[in-house]
Every structure is written in structure tokens, then in C-alpha cells.
Specification:
CATH architecture of the largest domain in chain B: Orthogonal Bundle
Shape of chain B: globular
Strand order of the largest sheet of chain A: 1-2
CATH topology of the largest domain in chain A: MetI-like fold
Subcellular location (chain B): Cell membrane
CATH class of the largest domain in chain B: Mainly Alpha
CATH superfamily of the largest domain in chain A: MetI-like
Distance between the termini of chain B: 57 Å
InterPro entries (chain B): MetI-like (IPR000515), MetI-like_sf (IPR035906), Phosphate_PstA (IPR005672)
Helix content of chain B: over 70%
Distance between the termini of chain A: 43 Å
Order of helices and strands of chain A: HHHEEHHHHHHHHHH
CATH topology of the largest domain in chain B: MetI-like fold
Shape of chain A: globular
Structural class of chain A: mainly alpha
Order of helices and strands of chain B: HHHHHHHHHHH
Number of helices of chain A: 13
Largest sheet of chain A: 2 strands, antiparallel
Membrane topology (chain B): Multi-pass membrane protein
Number of helices of chain B: 11
Keywords (chain B): Cell membrane, Membrane, Transmembrane, Transmembrane helix, Transport
CATH architecture of the largest domain in chain A: Orthogonal Bundle
Strand content of chain B: under 5%
Helix content of chain A: over 70%
Number of strands of chain A: 2
CATH superfamily of the largest domain in chain B: MetI-like
Radius of gyration of chain B: 24 Å
Organism (chain B): Paenibacillus vini
Largest sheet of chain B: none
Strand content of chain A: under 5%
Oligomer: heterodimer
Number of domains of chain A: 2
Structural class of chain B: mainly alpha
Chain lengths: 317, 293
Amino acid sequence: MSMPVHQAGNLEGADSAPMPNRRRTRRFNKAFFLNKLFKNYFLFSILTLCAVLALVIFFIGRTAILVFGDVSPAEFFFSLDWTPEEGRFGAALFILNTLSLTLLTLIMAVPISVGLAILMAEIAPKWMKKAIRPVLDLLVGIPSIVYGYLGLTVLLPFLRELSGEGLGDGLLAAAIVLTIMILPTISRISDDAIGAVPKKYREAAYALGSTRLQVIFRVVLPAAGRGIVAAVILGMTRAIGETMAVVMVIGNTPQLAKTLFTPSSVLTSNIVMQISNVEFDSAWNYALHMMAFLLLLISFALILVIRYLGRKGGAES
Amino acid sequence: MNRFSASRKQIRALRLDRIATACFYGLGALVLLLIFWLLFTILGKGLPGITLSFLTKLPEEIDPGGGIGPMLFNSFYVLILSLIISIPIGVGAGIYMAEYAPKNRFTEVLRICVESLSSVPSIVFGLLGLAIFAELLGIGLTILGGAVSLAFLNLPMLARVTEEAVRAVPDDLRNASYALGATKFEVIRSVVLPVAMDGIVTGICLVAGRAFGESAVIILTAGLSTSGEMWDFNLFSPGETLAVHLWYVNSEAIVEDARQIADKSAAVLVFVVLLINLLFRVPLWFNNRKLKR
């Protein structure tokens, strides 16, 4: 970029002195104009994102709030009885199921995926890292509906044989599918976060005589903590909001998941199974929107909690 | 004397280190095996039976032997429309957050907005699309509605990957460029973006792959049916995509070869996503070569 300007200045400098000066001002004006224009464009983009969020909250919230005209909040949040045909809308069981499914998924997914990230970023030699990353990308590439289909045709028969219980569908099947789904998300971003830790931190720790394990757990992981937290957030939001993979393996029965193999239903799966059968202005539709609004609130709340934890951890280290 | 106690501690630390290393390698091997097994299962079951006529034929309601032509076309159509809408805004937002955002309360609010938006479940975007396009505008379930809702879903993820990629660019490069008298935008365009392009393109890959296979949003906004014709560019016709078709075949279809259609559709879905990832990376290689020279 600087080359042509330099040459042009030389050529013009040969016959008239003020010429390059004027050109430069015009060039500068253009540069400053572009600078300002794009600054405003970038600001506009981020504000658009916020506007989309506002749209989501407004449109879902507007419909959701109407449910309390027909159903009392106490019934909606604390009743385990979901029989919309008879006007009983107790959503507590979906909320509890969603929470336990997410918890179960994270228990399985976080150690595996952070371990994988550590392997990629710290332990494996460079060629192996170069081989693992594209393979993880393959896993990201598989659409959620295909995971659901595989869960239905491969995992469920396997679990059926293993447990000898019913159809094999329920929390455990859903959690296994979700674990595989969010594994690449978490490990990939954790890997990036670990890779972004400055090399001098590691070298300082090695110089003090640490083994690699000590460097990883006492220096690298705390330093990359924020990034890893962000990774877990992304994975978690995917797990909470995942619909199609869950809907195919969880059984879709509105009851509380008391065991790992109880056919049950979570917020997302219940919405997608029922939303197309209801009319726009019925209490049923409002209740489903309220469940969607709850999903929103749950994920917002979780993000705030994890942000808080991340900030605290960052202050300590 | 101190050396003895210290060395015993060291031996323990070293042994722990070795065991942990082995464990990490074992974990990696297991996960890789699982991934290859998954891909082999999907592709191995479906790909052998795929013919050109399956990819281009119209689906059948009752007789066996139907194809997936319109759904495959719709998948690409919706994906491209949504990327056209979301990439300029998503990448711009990411650049703002990484380069411009000052350290203050306003930025903190913006950051919470982005994180909240990225946590919004896809089904909620489906409901939003349903509310805007079917209820408010009254145009029903359309390709346009599907593409816009899908773009909403892509936005926060694009912003996040762009921000991380831009942040990973070393400050030295920026400072060198500023020292040459470049404006902020010139620094971003000619230094930061080329260096961060690797990460940004990888991010767009992930987003495109996710969008191609997304089904929850499309079911609610573009519907469970097609217009019944191939090459239908009309934005206002219903747009069942391939991913939705896989769901439809599994839950509602009554054709006798539903299982084969599902197997093949799944294989095509995965194959196309892999292909998308490859295609998106081609410009990346060129860019890398240019940088190295």
C-alpha cells in the first residue's frame, strides 16, 4: 500500500513541489472520511445486534405474558400437571427436566472437552494438533438433526440392550447426544483461549522447575480461565437450547424425569412438538411462549452467573 | 539435605506428570475414534445408495423412490440468503467489540447483549420468526422468513468469532501500522483483518455449517413443505430444507422407504457441510500464501 504512494511522490516531486502536498491532503481527507464512516458502521452493526435481542424479548415476552390471564403464575411455575387439552398448564416439570438435562450434559462434557483442549494446546506435538483440529471441525459440521437421527437409530437400541429398560429413551440418551454435540464447541474455544496465553508465563513457570502438569493447572488454565468460561457458556447455551437432537431421543412425554430412562420432555422439545398444532390466541400458545421466555431467562441468568464467576476468578489469579 | 526432600517431591510431580500425559493422550484417542466411527456410520450407511436422480427428483408422498431435490435446493438458498444478511453485520459488530469499544459501562452492556443473544436458543428465534412473519406481516411460512430468522441466529456467533480472531492479533502489528501514519480504519483493513482472516473464515465456516443443518428455526419459519417445484427462487414460497426433511421423514412420512431416505438425507447433509467447510477454506490458503511471501 505504501509503495505506490512513495513512487507517485517521487515522480511529481520532479516538476512541481506543492503538488504532492495537495494530493496528500485529499488522500488524508478520504482516509479520515472512511475512518469515520466505518467506525459508525461498526457501531451500527453492534447496535443492530442489540436491536435483535430487543426484538426477541419484546415479541416473545408480549405473547408470553398473556398466559397469566388464563393460568395463575403459581400453577404455571409449580404444578407438575401439563394437560393442555383440559386447561392445566403446569410447566414446572419441563423446567426441572431442562435443568437436570443440562447439568448431566455438563458433568460429562466439560472434563472431556477441556481435557481435549489441553491435549491440543499444551501436550500434543504440533503435527498432531494440526490433525486433531480439522477432525473436531468435522464434528461441528454434523447438523443437530443428524445427531438426533443417529441417537434414534444407533444409541437408543444400544441403551435398550444395556439397561434392559423400556425404550432406552430419556435423560441419559439426550445427555449423551448433547455431550457429543457440545464437545467440539467447548474444546475448540478453550483451545484458542489456552493458545492465547503468552508464552512467557509458561517459560517463567518452567524456569521455576514446574512439571508440565503443574504449568498447565497452575499457570495456563488460570490465565486462560476467561476464555474457557466463555467456551463453556457457548456449549451450555447450545445444550439448553438444543431442540431437534433432544426431541428425537427424549421420549416426548410430559412427565418428570425421575430416572435416567424415564421418557420425558424438556422446554425446547415440548415447544417444537406442540407449537404447530395450536392457535395464535389460545392459552396453550401463550403457555408455550412463556416456556420460550423462560428458556430466555434461564440462559440470561446463567450467563450472568458465569460472568460473575469469571470476574471473581480473574481477580484472584 | 534439602535436596533429598525436594527431589522426592519432584519425583512424585514427574510421575504425576507422566500419568496425566498418558491420560490426555488416551482421551484424545478415544474422542477421535468416536468421531471417525460417527462419520463412518452416517456416510457409510447413506452415501452408497445416492444417485443423481435422488438428489434432483421431487419427493414422493406414498410411493417409494422419491428424491430430495427441492429440499436440497432450499437448504442452499436459505443458507446463502442468511449469510448475505448476517456476515456484514456480524463481522462489523465483532470488529467494533474488539477494536473500538472503550472500557466503560456502555461496552459492558453491549457485551452482555452479545452474550445474551448468543445464548438465545434456536427455537426461540423460530418463535420470533413465526411472530414477525406469520403473525405480524401475515405472509405465512416462507423462505424469506426462514433466512432472516437464521441470520438472527448467526449474528452473535459471527460477532463472537470475529472478536476473538481480531483480539488475537498482536498489538505490535497495530502499533507499527499506526507509526506509519495509518488511520484506525486503515490499520484494521490492511493489517488487522488480513492477520485475523484465518480465524474469521474458520468462524464463518462453523456458522455456515451450523446454519445449513439448522432445523428448529426452519420448521417454525419456513414450514414442513415445499412449493413442489425444483429451482423455485420465489422468496415467498414455503421452504422446507433438507434438515427439516430428515425430521419430517422420521416423524410423519408414510412412504415405505422412509428409513432409506432418512439414511441418505443424513449422509447428504453431512457431506455437504463438510464440502462447505472445504470450499470456505480455499480463499484462506491463498491468503496465507500471500502473507508468507
